[in-house]
Amino acid sequence: xxxxxxxxxxxxxxxxHLAAFTTxxxxxxxxxxxxALPGISFVNAMAMALPFTYVMEPxxxxxxxxxxxxxxxxxxxxxxIMINVPGTPASLPATWEGYxxxxxxxxxxxxxxxxxxxxxxxxxxALVLSFLSAPFASFALSFSxxxxxxxxxxxxxxxxxxxxxxxxxxxxxxFLGIAIGTVGVDPLYGQARFSFGISEMxxxxxxxxxMIGLFAVGEVVDLLATNRSxxxxxxxxRGLGVKFSDLWGVxxxxxxxxxxxxxxxxxxGAGATPGAVIAYGVExxxxxxxxxxxxxxxxxxxxxxxxxxxxxxxAMVPLLTLGIPGSAATAIMLAAMMxxxxxPGPLLFIMDPSMVYTIFAAMIIANVLMIVCGIGVAQxxxxxxxxxxxxxxxxxxxxxxxxxYGVRNNIFDVYVCLAFGVVGWAMKRIGFPTAPLVLGVIxxxxxxxxxxxxxxxxxxxxxxxxxxxxSATILGLAALFILWSLWPNISGLLRGRHARKA
Amino acid sequence: xxxxxxxxxxxxPRERSRGGRRPELRRLAPVLLPVCICVLALWAPAFVFHTxxxxxxxGLGPAAWPRGILALLALMALAWALRxxxxxxxxxxxxxxxxxxxxxxxxxxxxxxxxxxxxxxxALLPWIGFATATVxxxxxxxxxxxxxxxxxxxxxxxxxxxGLLWMFMGLALMPLSRxxxxxxxxxxxxxxxxxxx
Lengths: 502, 197
Fold this sequence. Notes:
The complex is a heterodimer of chains A (502) and B (197). Chain A is mostly helical. Chain A has helices spanning 2-15, 18-36, 42-49, 58-83, 92-103, 107-141, 145-162, 167-181, 199-202, 207-226, 234-239, 244-248, 251-265, 272-286, 298-322, 328-339, 346-351, 353-385, 389-408, 411-430, 435-457, 464-467, 469-501, and strands at 184-185, 192-193. Chain A has a two-stranded antiparallel ribbon with strand order 1-2. The N and C termini of chain A lie far apart (64 Å). Chain B has 197 residues and is an all-alpha fold. Chain B folds into 2 domains: 8-104; 107-193, no CATH class. In chain B, 63% of the residues lie in helices and 0% in strands. Chain B starts with 7 loop residues before the first helix and ends with a helix. Classes of the chains: A mainly alpha (502), B mainly alpha (197). The interface between A and B is large, with 79 and 77 residues.
């Protein structure tokens, strides 16, 4: 413990050097802005920033990428809350409650809650990273394909909790998403599926492209068709500013979200999106206002916000201690380390502890600084909201098209994005939920890969998912989650039957 | 995004009041969507492979997962259809899906125009280039959105496009489309003028 504190103190000393501190701030700003721009995710920003790290020291490059990572995970929620377009997949739950608050003229309150929850989650997660790296790493080491599959399945079933009033519609949307995720070359045999002879289809349909189309296009077309003003009315916005009680009132939601995010983040492959969605689902179950979820409930905003940022520090645990990147973002960080000849793993803690603890300190600093950066970018977005909706809409569409194109520098992705845009608009019009579909597209391919490789590794033994203790436990949790989510429906049916009998 | 849909109880009186005026078949129209999804999900496995699949060894092949998912999709769509059929025809309740709330003030013509503009923008992008397509799209969109000041429209379209070109082609080195033929020449000249090339 004392050693850790000493090393962390040294890390803070190094991170507060002018060059290192400036790098963290610049990275954080780039991340928040990239995350907030619809279609330009923080992963894209990290990938684009990778060449810039060639000219940096190894530690400095990690501080830069770490700053983008921390800032980007939160940044996605700014656009989600303000214009109902999640900048990153993990910000999806922020559209469900945060945007509803914006529609009620409580944009400042929503942003303050999101920012506080994100910063708290990220800060706790960074402390977890600093003090519990070794035990967490040994736990993650016992994970294999069946455990990854079970964890992904848990993320998938959590959507039932999102819209439990309509389980069949939600499941149809989810399975549609998973089916879309099967387009392209399969993960085990390398055979193209649903390609229809189109070479671009063989590379699959990227979830970012689907997400941009479904969310951005429908929203912008509705903006045009309803002539709705995005500007919150002055008196209402002033009257519903940020109060300490707003933040204090969601403390338990933040605590639950943070705890869940730390646990989920440490699982390689899970990441911020399942973390946020599961946290939303759990919050919907435990909250006293569970029936009001989807109408702008602060707890429903705070919990996933805390959870998604809590995954940032936790996701660094398997990266730094085992060299296993748990997400696209940490894979880019691994690439940056390799480029500088640094091999992450248990030896790194012995060979270069100052680097490791400078990164830990930087993660803590970045989460504290995020409050200032987040407020700054949110202010810029507030100014954007004062622009005429037509101008804002035009920019959102162009940015979305560029974002879709930028995924693979391919015009085909733009066509796919626009096709999903038209579908998303129609889905919005008839009230068909888009969120489960998006989650299906994101998590479906992961679930397939883990499922098939689990079976291949166990010689097609289907019991492998239930005989391994961790996998069985997670699957049991998934089953419990389904039952818990559907319980109001089941109990309602039972009550109705009893009433009819009586 | 509509997440929490109207509850069946809320929908019931509205449906009942409309029920008398509507022909019986029209009331069942909401069931068409799940039925179509169910049929598509049952039909789609025929299109898994475009060419003859390679012979596989033991175990699940590359078609197993998509076929399983499509079967589950068909099952859920069927359950949805049956639930709605029961709700509408027997219980006198509303269907699972309900339209968005701002329906009454919704300008469908403008929505169609917006969708058409967006699709046209994407379709023309590789032919006339990012710069030309974006200026044209932004101008028309602003006009459709109610802006009437030519200076404002021109300023937004031109300054916005130049800013985006500088950010994405200049800074991020993204190879955005320059267009074909004369549009390609124009794009190159513009990019040279802006100092990007």
